[in-house]
Design a protein that fits this description.
Helix content is 38%, strand content 17%. By secondary structure, it is of the alpha+beta class. Helix 3 (66-78) packs antiparallel against helix 5 (116-130) and helix 6 packs antiparallel against helix 7.
């Protein structure tokens, strides 16, 4: 596919949403078969899910779901092993080795506090069903946060992946509690409340948006070059609603 791209990453501050959301919608429409496949794979795992629809004639023929059994078995065998951080100390002296050991303890405690392993297990299970499992690390209220992200909520332009290249831009749809959203962006509280009352946009993947949730779109553009080197251009991150840059 080929689009006349609106360069949202070059837009003036506060105006990124004007071209960004339309650009993402066009990509999703062109990749409709991909998102439809995600729905079908989810239904194969759970024929009784909301995604399967109202018809129960075919569901009644299901006696044993081999797909669900295999997914659950692989997840139980592989994802049960916890991942622990290790700091390499080749050639280090005793003081550096001791510091590395303390960092490992700190990493292990941080992993437990943030419930990293349960979220990684959920991501692994999604991977066995749909081929990709994702977690997102971010900073919210000056604290680290780890979240499991559904692959259906991630959008990547095929054109940026030609020739096996890694894409320079990625987009994520997210539902955030309105109270939390207002706390994170207090300068826009009135606009957030106004938009959520008049615009209940919903992409939807089997479960409707909650009454106190707002839909936002994250967009990430990687920097060009290396900081401090000639030619460097910074990247950009935009979080927006329909009609507002947060």
């Amino acid at each position: 596919m080929s689009f006349n791209l609106d360069t949202w990453w070059r837009a003036d501050k506060g105006k990124g949403h004007q071209s960004l959301r339309e650009h993402v919608r066009r990509i999703e429409q062109a990749q409709g078969s991909v998102f439809d496949r995600f729905v079908k794979l989810e239904v194969l795992y759970d024929p009784n899910s909301k995604l399967a629809g109202e018809s129960g004639e075919q569901l009644a023929l299901v006696e044993e779901n081999a797909i669900a059994s295999n997914v659950d078995t692989v997840t139980a065998v592989v994802a049960a092993t916890e991942i622990l951080a290790r700091y390499q100390t080749d050639g280090a002296d005793w003081s550096q080795q001791r510091q590395a050991r303390h960092l490992e303890w700190y990493s292990e405690e941080l992993s437990k506090d943030l419930s990293v392993h349960p979220k990684c297990r959920r991501s692994f299970k999604e991977c066995t069903k749909k081929g990709v499992g994702l977690t997102k690390a971010s900073v919210v209220f000056d604290e680290p946060r780890i979240e499991h992200v559904m692959v259906e909520n991630i959008v990547v332009d095929d054109d940026e992946c030609r020739g096996g290249r890694a894409p320079r831009r990625m987009y994520q749809w997210e539902h955030i509690d309105i109270d939390e959203l207002c706390a994170r962006f207090p300068k826009h509280e009135e606009q957030i409340l106004s938009l959520t009352k008049t615009n209940r946009e919903w992409r939807g993947w089997g479960n409707s948006i909650l009454a106190n949730d707002a839909e936002v779109l994250w967009a990430y553009s990687l920097p060009v070059g290396r900081r401090g080197v000639k030619g460097y251009r910074p990247g950009r991150v935009i979080c927006c609603m329909n009609g507002l840059d947060l």
